[in-house]
Structures are given as structure tokens and as C-alpha cells.
Sequence to fold (630 residues):
Amino acid sequence: MTETVLTGTVLTDTVLEVSGLHRSFGAVQAVHDVSFSLARGGSLGIVGESGSGKTTTARIVVGLEHADTGEVRLLGRDRSGPVGRGRRPRLERAREVQMVFQDPFLSLDPRTSVHGVLRETLRLHFPERRADHERRIAELLEQVGLGAREAGALPRQLSGGQRQRVAIARALAVEPAVLVLDEAVAALDVSVQAQILNLLADIRTETGIGYLFITHDLGVVRCVTEDVVVMRHGRIVEAGPTAQVLDDPQHPYTRLLLDSVPRPGWDPKGIAAARRALL
Amino acid sequence: MTDTPAGTPAADAATPETPNPETPTLEIQGLRLNLPGAARPVLAGVDLTVAARETVALVGESGSGKSLTSRSVLRLLPPGAATEGAVRVQGEDVLTMNAKQLRRLRTHTAAMIFQDPRAAINPLRRIGDFLTESLRLNADLPAAEATERAVRMLDAVGLGDRVLGQYPGQLSGGMLQRVVIAAALMGDPALILADEPTTALDVTTQAEVVGLLGDLRDQFGTALLFVTHDLGLAAAISDRVYVMYAGRIAETGPAEALFQRPRHPYTAALLRSTPHLDAPAGRLAAIEGRPPSLREELTGCPFAARCAFATQQCREELPPHLPVRGESSRLVACHHSEKLADQLAGSVTHD
Ligand SMILES: Nc1ncnc2c1ncn2[C@@H]1O[C@H](COP(=O)(O)OP(=O)(O)O)[C@@H](O)[C@H]1O
Ligand SMILES: Nc1ncnc2c1ncn2[C@@H]1O[C@H](COP(=O)(O)OP(=O)(O)O)[C@@H](O)[C@H]1O
Ligand SMILES: [Mg+2]
Ligand SMILES: [Mg+2]
Fold:
């Protein structure tokens, strides 16, 4: 880590900056010229229908996927290439950005208890602070609203909402600057979803972490983001402050998405016609 | 009987030969369902009706019993399920039908559309075979006639006959769900049971499928029971709504009145916890805790443990379904509904 980078880190208020990302799979342009930035402690939404390139973008940001061209900067450092081999670069990247998926079950070891998951994460990332781990585990559990009973449980003994809390706690354990949430509340019932969304809002206030919040639900976007980009067929069709984009959409596709949200007096036939006109 | 909403009178005990026009297409009365290993009934006395041409939404969070309620209409129940009560389709009780009557019901009278079209269709068989199978096997319809009908139903859902020769893998999710709807229409059913039919689809595709279901109702007079966890969708499409919690109907009534002025604290809480497009950013009014598991026995109101207004009475006495004063077609199962009316209605306005 050089002095200039450190200075950059301190000076910039942008924790994540993505510019000109491209990624194709065969003939499919999954991501096409995507650029956006996330302020420190900010919350940026990515909305779009399935196949619009949201997940591919997220995977490039966290280093699970590479871009064909384009740049990803995290805390001012160029993170465009693949994550370097070996322990140090991987841990460094993990401290910059963590990801929470729609189905946390798939990312949790079925044989490790909640307490065990957090302990392993802390041992990996902060071996020098070993004496502090138990205190930190208690703090994390408290932060995500899990009790002593859940701490001893295995993933399959938990509900969907509780598992998502575990996934969030594990991500927070690493103290990343950015948390990427890919449809993280999509599988939850509304009452549980509301609990998790509130939890995420509180955590952002407390820790100053930034969110890249991927969702297909415009109500969720309104609730938890400050800025939003709308993606379609791999491209950004509209971007701006969330309230502005939702209240005064400029692109016909954004309007179509908004009109498609069911509400009394909703006109499904009109939406279907508008959709065909846009194809 | 007292739980039957006014305007949809119960059928007579003696089943008429030709369905009485007053007979609801679907009438569920006092349905109780027990499953092995559960500490309480999974369905604990459900009353629900759907009239011809009516679209009725059944809403609630996962595990509340929506799917089992709709599956009971075709008697597609888990092994070991024990039922009480009646589930009448066009006046005939499904729960006591013999195998032949049941086959007729499933082929011609009532059809089901599930959430995931890909799970409903064998990926190795052509769409044409999938569409005509039931009629060929159960109604002894010659293949040519079955295919002719398939072409007409595909046309009704906006698909050409080209898909007859295609495989499921060649179609998008939205197109496949239309194929599933066409399949449901093959037997000219009086009742369609749609269990989260658009949950796996994108919003714009959802609009298309919902518009299509509305057309079919206008065209064929089909009654529709639409199961969904999406309150906004229920409000947008249905004439009447049933809100279910832990195997019981919490409240029911016309969609507009119910969502504007909920009379059960659970309905109001659900509405408030839903992130709203027109609501300001910020914290949501979450409902603490989660629905009771089937391993828990329940006394009193099933929602009492999570309800901000619960009293000792709520924890001890099961609230009966009572009419809402001044609103003849509404029923609510809450001891305190009357005195909470203003508070509950006020809590859901976002403006
Ligand atoms: N590993 C992959 N191989 C081939 N195609 C892919 C792969 N990942 C994504 N795609 C394609 O890229 C496009 C964008 O996908 P994705 O980023 O998952 O969109 P979203 O998350 O918005 O649904 C889709 O057409 C998808 O099929
Ligand atoms: N085949 C089954 N065997 C055992 N329990 C079941 C079965 N199907 C559903 N259940 C249980 O019955 C309850 C109601 O389920 P369901 O009707 O699927 O709810 P919903 O459709 O509202 O999510 C749930 O607790 C569920 O776990
Ligand atoms: Mg995705
Ligand atoms: Mg269900």
C-alpha cells in the first residue's frame, strides 16, 4: 500500500467507482458500458428485470467475475483485474467489499453453527485480535438481532429471515466499506423483509457502510436507496437520485417499470401494450 | 353458515342437478385440515366463496395455508391429510367425491395454475403433448380434436400454434406461464385456481399474465381464486379478498374497502410493513416476530403474540368471524376490531 493510495482513500468520498464496464457471455452482452459511483456511507440501488445484468455487475464489483473492459475502483484502488492469488490480496479485497445473496442457505456451511461462522470469519480476517473475538461476536449478533439460542443453531434450524441476518453479520464481521446486496430481501415475507430493511438502515447509520442494493422491487428501492440506476439489456437507461427517478422518470422503460407495479386502478393491458411497443 | 359473506348465499344441502345460478362456483365451509406431526390444524376452519365471474384474492405470508386451501379444491393434499368441512365446486363436495367424479372435476370443472411454470411442464415433451394430454387421457377426446382445441386456447393466451412443436426450454418464463394457462383452459373450467402464478415473473410480464386472466374471465365467465402474498397485486386485481394467518381467515371483504380501511390488526400491519412506491424513504413499520410454527399449539387469536393491541382476552379466546358494522359483506376475526377501526384505517394512509 503506497502513500498516494492511502491519501486518495482519505480524500475521496467515493468508496466504489465503476466506469465503462463491459462483459459478454458468447453473443450475450450481459453488461454494456456500465458506470456509477457510490459515496461513502451511501446507498445506491440497481433495478431492472431479470437478465438486465444486475448480478453480473455485482459479481464484477466483488471480484467473482471479471470485466472484458472497464474499471472498478474500491476506496480509490484499481480493482479491475482478477483478485490476486494468495491470502493477502483476497483478504484485502474482502475488507473492501462483501456480498449478501438472495438465498443465504447456499453460502452457509450446513455443519457450522452461527457462532462458529462468525468465529471463523474473525479468525481469518483478524487473527491478531483473537482476544477480542468473543466480544465482537456478541456485538455482531446484537447488531443483527440474533439471540443466544440462534447463535448455537445450524443454518437449517433457522428461518429464512434469521439466515439472512447471519449472512449480514458474517459480512459485517469483515468490516467492509461496501456491502453488495443482490436481491437479499426478495425471498422474505413482507413482515420479515421489513425487519431486515430496518436492520440494514440502522447498520448503515451506525457504521457508515455503503450499500450497492440490487433489487427488482421499486418499493424497496424507494425505501433504502438514495440514488438509483435503472438497467435494461445490460445498459443503464436512467440514473439519478431515487426520489427524482421514481417521481419523474425520463426514460420510457423506467416509466414502464413504474406503471407495472400493481395498485388499485392498475391497467395491465395498457402495460402489456407499452411493453410490446418498447421491445 | 354465519361466516358466509352476504350476497353469496350458501347452497342448499340437497345438490341440484343443474347448478343453481345462486350457487357459488366455489364454496369452502368450515374446512379443517390436519397433517401428521403438526400440533394444530394447518387449516383451522376456513370459509371462502368465489362466485362465477368473480376474482377473489387469498393473501397472507408464507406458511399461512394459502396453497393447501387452493389445493384442497382439487383434493391435491399431502399424504396423511385429514379433512373436515366441505369444499363444494358448483355445489358438489370435492372431499367426498369418488375417483371418477374427481377425475371429471380436475379435467373439466376446475384447473390449477402454479407459481413455477417450469416445474409444471415436463421439459422433455413438446408443448402440444402437454396441452392435449389431459383431454386425450381423461376425456377420450380424439387427438385431432384435442389439438384443435389446443390451438384455440393458445390463441386465447396470445400464442401461435408454432409453440405446439416446441419444447419448454425454447420458451421464456412469461410464454411458459401462458402455456400453463392455456393448459388450464383446455377443459373449459368454471373455476381457475391460480397459486402465485406471477411470483416468478418480472413485473412487466406479470402485468401481461394478469391482463390475460382478466380477459378470460370476460370471455368465458371463469371464476378465479388468485393466491398471492403480494397485497398490491391483490388490491389491483380482485373483487374480494381473504386475508389468511396461521390457517385461519383474519378478515375478508371487498378489495377496496379492505385495503383502505383494514379492520384486522394483521391486515393493517401487513400493509404498513410493505415498502411502498409512494411512501417516503426511511424505516418501515415492521411486525416483530414471525408466524407461529406448526409445532406450536395455539390458544386464542393466532396473531395475539405479534399484535400491538393484544389483551388477555386475545390470548385466551379465539375471536369469531363477525360482520363489520355497516358493511354487510365484510367479516373480521378480532375482539377489538370495532374500537380499533379509526386507528387501523389511519395507520395505512401514506399520503
Ligand atoms: N455465467 C454465465 N454464462 C452465460 N450467460 C450468463 C452468465 N451469467 C449471466 N449470463 C447472462 O447474462 C445476462 C445478464 O444476467 P444477470 O447479470 O444474471 O442479470 P440479472 O441479475 O439482472 O437477472 C443474462 O442474459 C444471463 O443469461
Ligand atoms: N406436504 C406437506 N407436508 C407437511 N406440511 C406441509 C405440507 N404442505 C404444507 N405444509 C405446511 O402447512 C402449512 C401451510 O402451507 P401452505 O398452504 O403451503 O402455505 P402458503 O401457501 O400460505 O405458504 C405450512 O406450515 C407448511 O409447512
Ligand atoms: Mg440477478
Ligand atoms: Mg403457497
About this structure: Residues B 35, 42, 60, 62-68, 78, 294 surround adenosine-5'-diphosphate (ligand 2) (CB under 6 Å). Confidence is low (pLDDT under 50) at residues 1-17 of chain B. The CA atoms of residues 43 and 247 of chain B lie 4 Å apart. Chain B touches chain A through 40 residues (CB under 8 Å).
